[in-house]
Amino acid sequence: MANEIPEIASPTRTKAIMEAYGLTFKKSLGQNFLTDINVLKKIVSAAQVSTDDDVIEIGPGIGALTEQLAKKAHQVLALEIDERLLPVLSETLAPYSNIQVVHQDILKADLEKLIARYFDGKHNLKIVANLPYYITTPIIMHLLSTKVKLAGIVVMMQKEVANRLAAKPGTKDYGSLSIAIQYEMDCEVAFIVPKTVFVPQPKVDSAIISLTMKEHKSEMPQDETHFHKLVKGAFMHRRKSLWNNLQGLYGKEADIKESIEKALQLAQIEPSIRAERLTITEFVKLSDALLVNGLK
């Protein structure tokens, strides 16, 4: 039955849905609807969605990606913050019995409760979504902080942000966000999505990024809170040396300077180096060395 009418993402169907409901795009919610079915199928493929998977989608819009997910997944739970879209989704996704749409803000959602309510707990759990540009990083960090066991996260975001998440040491995009993500997850850019496949067309291209939680971290700092504080502080002023940023973080008193110097020696890191050249392993060593020398 679902195949008797054009797929939601087709430009003609998208236009018809928008006109039928008198919909306008909310800039405040970062709404851009994808109108290329092949791109949507590539997203589902990148997430390796199958009937073994339950999927949470964030911001289904008018249901274009949701429809493609439903064709492959066991069950789909779509969280939509825009109340205007609920009746639209009720109609566009009516042919699919394996979709639940909930009026919910992902940043306020209790994922554990939602999962217990809508899923049977017998399938892998994945997040697949086209994230609003304006709130991409908070959503990713929120998902990182959850206790829910995720088999994978495959999301679309602004290309520049995706590059920062996946950046390697020594590159201009590498920073505290790269480390925060890569400390917890394996991260790679799956493919680029041109701005021309969206309505309305955004100003920049997008990218699909694949994130997989690490089963075991190769390096663990003695104190994770201190480790993350150090990383943020080390990138406080990107053009300054690590030595200068560490003084900005811990202080410039003579005894503190001496402790910083000892910690750098212990971690075998040159004071003149910039933070962008340090690997996660080196940040872990430095974090522990600073603790050994009384700096928290």
Summarize the structure.
The protein is built from twelve helices and nine strands. The chain has 296 residues and is an alpha/beta fold. Helix 11 (254-266) packs across helix 12.
CATH class designation of the largest domain: Alpha Beta
Do you know the CATH topology of the largest domain?
Answer: Rossmann fold
Roughly how many Å is the radius of gyration? 22 Å
The assigned CATH architecture of the largest domain is: 3-Layer(aba) Sandwich
The biggest sheet amounts to: 7 strands, mixed
Overall mean pLDDT stands at: 93
Q: Name the CATH superfamily classification of the largest domain.
A: Vaccinia Virus protein VP39
State the secondary-structure class: alpha/beta
Q: Total number of β-strand segments?
A: 9
pLDDT < 50 runs, ≥5 residues: none
| Strand residue percentage | 15-25%
How many structural domains does the protein architecture include?
2
Helix content: 25-40%
InterPro entries: KsgA/Erm, rRNA_Ade_diMease-like_C, rRNA_Ade_Mease_Trfase_CS, rRNA_Ade_methylase_Trfase_N, rRNA_adenine_dimethylase, SAM-dependent_MTases_sf
Subcellular location: Cytoplasm
Pfam families: RrnaAD
Keywords: Cytoplasm, Methyltransferase, RNA-binding, rRNA processing, S-adenosyl-L-methionine, Transferase
List the helices and strands and how they pair.
Elements: H1 11-21, E1 33-34, H2 37-46, E2 53-58, H3 64-70, E3 75-80, H4 86-92, E4 99-103, H5 111-118, E5 124-130, H6 136-145, E6 152-158, H7 159-166, H8 176-184, E7 185-193, E8 198-199, E9 206-213, H9 224-234, H10 242-250, H11 254-266, H12 280-292
